[in-house]
Design brief:
Strand order of the largest sheet: 3-4-5
CATH architecture of the domain at 66-127: Alpha-Beta Complex
Number of helices: 4
CATH class of the domain at 66-127: Alpha Beta
Radius of gyration: 17 Å
Distance between the termini: 36 Å
Shape: globular
Structural class: alpha+beta
CATH superfamily of the domain at 66-127: Lactate dehydrogenase/glycoside hydrolase, family 4, C-terminal
Length: about 130
Amino acid sequence: MEQIDGVPIEEYCTATGLQWGEQIKAALYQQVKDMGATIIEGKGKTHYGIASCVCLIADAILNQRQTIIPVSSVLHGEYGVCDVALSVPSVVEMNGVERIPVCEWQEDEYEAFRASAEKLKQIIQTF
């Protein structure tokens, strides 16, 4: 289940007057999926975005600010995936990833995530 700060996204959108539905969800999914290519097409590179992410992570670690951000970590059963590093929302603080809070997803999201994990494992095995 999609959530914003623990509140189901549909409930959040209703309370804040935002529209939500399958079409919006699908459009956001596609936009996120294409974002890297869109940035490269517009600027020719993405290093500023990467630098911004590194600064956010460094701030969390150096200033001891517990922050939830998507970072890659080896998963140990979270979301039904083991022994492969994938980016998932993680609690980052001065010692790095403190924990990975498991969010509730729709079943199709779990399936797509697990399929990506399996593809990545297969690719890693070729090296």
